[in-house]
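Moderator note: this is an archived Q&A kept for reference. The question asked for a predicted structure of one protein chain; the sequence and the answer are reproduced below.
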Amino acid sequence: MSNTEPADLRAYMAANPGAVIEDVARERKISPRAVLEALPGEMVRIGNGGEFAAVMQDIAAWGEVTLIVHTDDAIFEFTGSIPAGEIGRGYFNLMQPKGLHGHLRHERCGAIAFVERPFMGKSSAFIAFINVDGGIMFKVFVGRDDTRALRGDQLQRFRILADRIAPKGAA
């Protein structure tokens, strides 16, 4: 894939909405944010990265989700509850001694994308935290029930949060 023209990328993503964002970005030598922005408008909304702490606090009340960190060298997946956090000493600190914990550079979050699209034959919904360089810090996916369907309660919370952070029609 050598053509990085915006219209070509939009056409590619419309035809392949389930493409792995990071793979398309690497192949086209563009940022993952540019790939997300090329998804059909009904599949993605992008809001202000300054809402990082508020979004993370909301997700902490959702229950079991999957958090994914995708780098050139590995794909890390954590399935479980995201702990509540607080800002201190320049980081958003996940406040739990075991399981998922750590310190996130929230001030580097330039945008937050809310994505609903098909992936591997199923509906998916995730929040991508996009850094100031256009890379994806990490993604949080709406959980699935015993039938592998998206959890309805989480999908509802996802959509309410998307409406608040990245209202439809806002640019």
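Archived answer notes: The mean pLDDT is 94.
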